[in-house]
Amino acid sequence: MDLGLNGRKVLITGGTRGIGRAMAQAFGAEGAQLALCARNERQVTETVKALRDDGVTAHGTALDIADHAALKSWIQRTGEELGGIDVVIANPSAFGIGATEADWQNGYAVDLLGTVHTVEAAMPFLEQSAQRSGDAAILILATAAIAETDFESAYGAYKSALVHYAKGAARRLAKQRVRVNTISPGTIYVEDGFWGNAKRNLPGLYADFFARNPMGRMGEPREVANVAAFLCSPAASFVTGANVFVDGGWTSRVNF
Q1: Three-state SS string across 79-99, please?
Q2: Which of the listed CATH numbers 3.30.720.210, 3.40.50.720, 3.30.750.80, 3.40.50.12280 matches domain 9-189+222-245?
Q3: First to last CA, the chain
Q4: Under a CB-based contact definition with an 8 Å cutoff, are residues 34 and 12 in contact?
Q5: Which residue(s) pair with 37 in the sheet?
Q6: What percent of the residues of the chain are helix, what percent strand, and what percent coil, each to the nearest 5?
Q7: Which stretch of 135-139, 148-152, 160-164 has the lowest confidence by average pLDDT?
Q8: Is 222 exposed, middle or buried (0-12, 13-18, 19+ CB in 10 A)?
Q9: What is the pLDDT of residues 115-145, one digit of tens each?
Q10: pTM exceeds 0.90 for this model
Q11: Contact (Cβ atoms closer than 8 angstroms) between residue 184 and residue 244
Q12: Cβ atoms of residues 181 and 166 within 8 Å
């Protein structure tokens, strides 16, 4: 199926590891032009090189999205250099899974305001894209933990707020043909990510969450990335305001 992403200009925050990198690879495979950022300069350089080696037009910048001035400057510069932005993917994670003051402060700066500033800075380019092609897209990464929790968590609370934010933006921007959706991944295994580290260092926690997966396994980043590519493509032109759980049935609630 041709998703219609060839030549589309896609901006991804947090695009060098795990789900973020898998999304960059998925969009690149569809012929999109990519601009990505992440905190670690070495990982940005390595990711961009790998994408270019695969024939993808890719650019990268090392920055911390908690530095909102630097974030907005990068988005403005990127939009001008690429000649527009058609898709924005906000993939933030302070990953404050606790409820300490630092968890709340970091989550507010990175997950919540990092996303809001990403969307606001990209909006002029997205509006131009929608006027030109009839379809532009924003995708925000949340978590299945918004629906299942055993304890209070800044991470889950801010990700829940992002789903609400996205729904409101989707309603407001629908007439402008700028679509806004969220994905809530379940337990996605990344060797150097949270679940890889938990398997090595917190085997009890890992075993508990693994056992909750009715498919008998954790997910892979590419399985989230494939959904992301569809949601951001013209093939999903009538999908906006959706929160798609990519969790292998991990959550038990009924999504009416």
Answers
A1: HHHHCCCCEEEECCCCCCCCC
A2: 3.40.50.720
A3: 28
A4: yes
A5: 13, 61
A6: 50, 15, 35
A7: 148-152
A8: middle
A9: 999 999 999 999 999 999 999 999 999 999 9
A10: yes
A11: yes
A12: yes
**Measured between alpha carbons, how far is residue 66 from residues 13, 70, 107, 163 in Å?**
11, 9, 9, 19
**pLDDT, tens digit (0-9, with 9 covering 90-100), for 183-229:** 999 999 999 988 999 999 999 999 999 999 999 999 999 999 999 99
Domain coordinates in residue numbering, the chain: 9-189+222-245
> What whole-number distance in Å separates Cα of residue 195 and Cα of residue 217?
12
CB of 234 within 8 A of CB of 4? yes
Q: Mind giving me the DSSP string for 162-181? A: HHHHHHHHHHHHGGGTEEEE
Q: How does 44-76 read in b/e, with b if 16+ C-beta sit within 10 Å?
A: beebbebbeeeebebbbbebebbebeebbebbe
Are the beta carbons of 188 and 195 closer than 8 angstroms?
Answer: yes
Strands (E), 117-200: 136-141, 178-185
How many other CB atoms are there within 10 angstroms of residue 249's CB atom? 11
Q: Which tens digit of pLDDT belongs to each residue from 54-79?
A: 999 999 999 999 999 999 999 999 99
Per-residue confidence (pLDDT) for residue 38, from 0 to 100? 97
Please state, in angstroms and rounded to a whole number, the distance separating the CA atoms of residues 229 and 26: 7
The number of CA neighbours under 13 Å toward the Cβ of 115 is 29
**Catalytic option among 155, 158, 189, 206:** 155
Average of per-residue pLDDT values in the chain: 96
Place of tokens 């890719």: 58
Q: Is 155 a catalytic residue?
A: yes
